[in-house]
Structures are given as C-alpha cells and as structure tokens.
Amino acid sequence: MNYDNQNIFAKILRGELPCQKVYEDDHSLAFMDIMPQADGHTLVIPKYPAVTLLDIPADQLAALMASTQKVAAAVKKAFAAPGIVLFQLSGAEAGQTVPHLHFHVLPSSLRTLMTRAHAAQMEDQAKLAEFAARIRAALG
Ligand code: 5GP
What we know:
The protein has 140 residues and is of the alpha+beta class. The chain is built from four helices and five strands; from the N terminus they run H-E-E-E-H-E-E-H-H. Helix 2 packs across helix 4. Guanosine-5'-monophosphate binds next to strand 2.
C-alpha cells in the first residue's frame, strides 16, 4: 500500500505538528489521542512508514509491540485501570481514519469505549497534557 508522508502522524513524527507525548524510542512514539474514547486513550505508532498492520516488517512490528506493552502497563498503572483495551484498525474499510499504522491503548472496557464514538470529539488540551504527564510518571 502506498504510504502518504503528508498524513497527520507522519507530520507528528517529523515534529511538524504537536502532540502530547508519553513515550519515544528508536522505533516508536506514543502520544495522547486528540479525540479519545476514554480518559487516557493513547496511540502507539511505529517510526517505520507503514499504513496498516500488513505493511510492516516483522522485526519492526516486534519492536512496536514491545513499546505498546510498555505503554499499556503505564496507562493501566496511571489510571488504576482494572483492564486495558488494545485495538488496531487496518484499512479505511475497517474504519481506519489516519493512514499510518497505530495501536490504540485504553484504560477502559469494551462496553465503556463503545459509549464514545470513534475519532469524534476533541478533548481539552490541558486535560490531555495532564493525562500524558500521569502516564510518563508511571513509565518511570
Ligand atoms: P484510526 O481511526 O486510524 O484507527 O485512529 C486514528 C486516531 O487518531 C483516532 O482515534 C483520532 O481521534 C486520532 N487523531 C486524529 N487526528 C489526530 C491528531 O491530529 N492528533 C492526535 N494526537 N490524534 C489524532
């Protein structure tokens, strides 16, 4: 699949657009979702330019999953969540709205997240900044 290097997450990776960052390493970046489906909704993205799960080499995916696990543990701790929801949409037909691979991490339950529409309502930036700080603290 052709990768559009002008997509929003590519711009965030290049520092051309801001984000509420929670984690970064050589292979991945994690930041707050701007239209969250639960408080603490975080996105983990690879630096590798993949559109969907099917477009990333296995070694890059392994690195991304290790980061996702690390971030999920911090999100769970920061929000004292009993459980974590992890989801990933591959392809516009599946509902993917940003064409750069990402995992959604939510300190929530399937029932709760279904009460807030996907990518629908902008969150207050100050609130996102506070949540990001909480997750960064949990990462240690
Ligand atoms: P998708 O629909 O591709 O699985 O998820 C894209 C996610 O990115 C949505 O949950 C949406 O709220 C979020 N999003 C869209 N634009 C931006 C943005 O500019 N910044 C951030 N931080 N999140 C975004």
